[in-house]
Fold this protein.
Amino acid sequence: MIKYLSPTSWLAIALVALLQTIALATMVYGRVSLLSSGREITAEVIPVDPRDLFRGDYVILGYAFSTAEVNVPEGTSQGDTVYVTLKPLAPGQWEVVSVAGAYPSLAGGPDNVVLKGIVSYVMRGAEGEPLKAQVRYGIESYFVPEGTGRALEEKVRDKKISAILAVGASGDVAIKALDVDGERIHQEPWF
């Protein structure tokens, strides 16, 4: 016996499909917007433990500002979102200026940049010392075309690679491209 759907059922199915399409379009638009109009900064990539440097078709990338433990506000826990203000030291080199639980209203200067990150772990120091934490930004791994990872792994070890990052007004950050010996390679597709 074949049952037919009522008009109300068809309307409900169409509404669910429309909502799913809107959600997917919003995610794609956010990524495209970040990569196309986000502030572009360059960050030197530093070597990470060689045992984890290359797995499959992606490389693990480390940055001075992401491998250092930073002072965080009291009450910060693992998994919290934090906003890290960086200031440029030299081309490709960034230093952490401050960490806040909310997007800072004043970033401290026109050259400074604010990145949104997630606290990986928190360490409590001695009595009276500030909390320290490791922060991840979602830019620590990068997928590369098949068969190119080994060459990039060597460039990372030789410190000849930088990441071109796109930073949005809300602190969102994404890898836009990799720069190897001054040549932009592996441009990230918008979607």
